[in-house]
Amino acid sequence: MTRGDSFRGFRRGDGQVGIRNLLLVLPASQCANQLALECSADAPGAFPLLHTQPCAHLGEDNEAARRCLVGLGRNPNAAAVLVVGIGCDSLSAKGMAEEISAAGKPVKWLTVESCGTWEAVVEHGRAWLALLESKISSQRREEVALSDLTLGVKCGGSDSTSAVAGNPAIGQAVDRLVEGGGTVVFSETTELIGAEHLLMARAATPRMREEIQSVVRRVEESILATGVDPRGTQPTPGNIAGGLTTLEEKSLGGVIKTGSCPISGVFPWGGRPEGAGLHLVDCPANVPQLLLGWAAAGAQLLVFSVGGGLPARIPSLIGTNVGGLPLLPIIKVLSNPRDRDAASYFDVDASTILDGRESMNQVVLALWDRIIGTASGEHTYLEDYPAPAVQIWEMLVRGPTI
Amino acid sequence: MVATSTKPCALVANEKDSVAILLAPVAQGEPVTLLGPDFGSAGAVEARGPIEPFHKIAIRKIAEGESIVKLGEIIGRATCPIARGDHVHVHNVVGVRLSGGAR
């Protein structure tokens, strides 16, 4: 096989393929975040995924959080998972660990209740992570097919160049991956308003067509019900400065990154796609929640399209205070040639299409090469970005919080 | 090629579009070369005012209330008559969705 038709990843027990080999430390609740940090302190390969799950949520929000945390544990970029809890958490550390075990990788759970003391959890947790660290270091990558890859696509800091540079290039890569048997997930339901007819026309089945319409209608009605004029938030002041006039214009440019392939599925935040192809995750356009949702859906990799302007001047990840979610490596794509002096913050410079330095085809090939290279272990810009700040990842909450 | 040209260019992303995306800033009265979806030549338009790069320029006359077409789709409607060569943005266009019919 030539570079482009396959990549090199870590095969997991359930057949999924990881492109990274992390030791994921998952708190069962926000009360266990500090516990996760202390357990991970001496394990350089460990990633404590701190989050906001409290005790104050009701049924569906708790269920969505449980689905999400289990999905994160099952993400193939996690080679092994330690679930830590207090014991009185709204979600059971033991229950989630048992569900994650189905992914055929080492999973352990520890709670203050089961170990007796906080310090005992830290002691057992550290010992287990040290053991697993030596175990996973001997794992080797193997040649795997494109059908083992799930890619997320997202745009942010959009301006009018996004729709004619980065997004169409990403759309072509999406089509290529889907044709190759891979899976692609996109989201940002709010930013489908005004472009949903194009997605509905691509629905694989009549039921999918109705679902696309229904998730977009629901978010539109919920915004209208607030009585607040969303202009100024959507499009953002940055979008407007960049030449985007209306939400419809932003949405129409955004959906270009989903290519032209059929839409095979729609599923809720925290859920997983059924089968390969292109799927919509129903979630607002809030970066931390989106990243959790995509990682929980099993995405190993994300392509993030940035238009230009001030958002292009942020070297870390827009919408977060860190360099990204280690569980989900991110390929950043730049569209606006006015920001070419910030191109070093990006993995792929699609702005070259607009100032005549490169053709669309050349950029599509460069992007594809980055996708395959990153999937095979090459670091992205953000993976090497020093990000000492801590992110507490936000769960999606529909409310009420009690 | 696009920016290597000294004259300002604007991209007509779809042949149905009533606006083009400026690839460089333009001054009032300056001629703008239009490029089609494949970046081939698609005529010219004269800017009726200064316009920032990557903002929209009308490539035909648009009546008040008429839809603005970009990327082959409706992005909003004109809140006043728009002349060929005008800057097209929030001062003369409103989105239809979520706007509650506001102008």
Brief description of this entry?
In chain A, 33% of the residues lie in helices and 17% in strands. With 402 residues, chain A is an alpha/beta fold.
Can you summarize the main beta sheet of chain B? 6 strands, mixed
Rg of chain A computed from alpha carbons, rounded to a whole number of angstroms: 21 Å
Reading off the top of the CATH hierarchy, the class of chain B is best stated as Mainly Beta
Strand content range of chain B: 25-35%
Q: Report how far the terminal alpha carbons of chain B are from each other.
A: 39 Å
State Rg of chain B: 13 Å
Strand order of the largest sheet of chain B: 4-3-1-2-5-8
Helical fraction of chain A equals 25-40%
State the secondary-structure class of chain A.
alpha/beta
Task: Let me know the number of strands of chain A.
Answer: 14
Structural class of chain B: mainly beta
How many individual β-strands of chain B?
A: 9
- Order of strands, main sheet of chain A, comes to 10-11-9-8-12-13-14
Q: What would you call the quaternary organization?
A: heterodimer
Poorly predicted runs of chain A are none
Descriptive overview:
The complex is a heterodimer of chains A (402) and B (103). Chain A is an alpha/beta fold. Chain A is 33% helix and 17% strand. Chain A has helices at 33-40, 59-74, 93-101, 112-115, 118-136, 166-179, 196-200, 206-225, 237-241, 247-254, 287-296, 360-375; strands at residues 6-11, 17-18, 22-27, 46-48, 78-85, 107-111, 142-145, 150-156, 183-186, 263-268, 277-282, 301-306, 330-334, 348-349. Chain A has a 7-stranded parallel sheet with strand order 10-11-9-8-12-13-14, sandwiched between helices. The longest helix of chain A has 20 residues, at 206-225. Chain A is globular and about 60 Å long. By secondary structure, chain B is mainly β. In chain B, 0% of the residues lie in helices and 34% in strands. In chain B, strand 6 (67-70) and strand 7 form a beta hairpin. Chain B starts with 8 loop residues before the first strand and ends in a 9-residue tail after the last strand. The model of chain B has no long low-confidence stretch (mean pLDDT 91). Classes of the chains: A alpha/beta (402), B mainly beta (103). At the A-B interface, helix 8 and helix 10 of A face strand 7 and strand 9 of B.
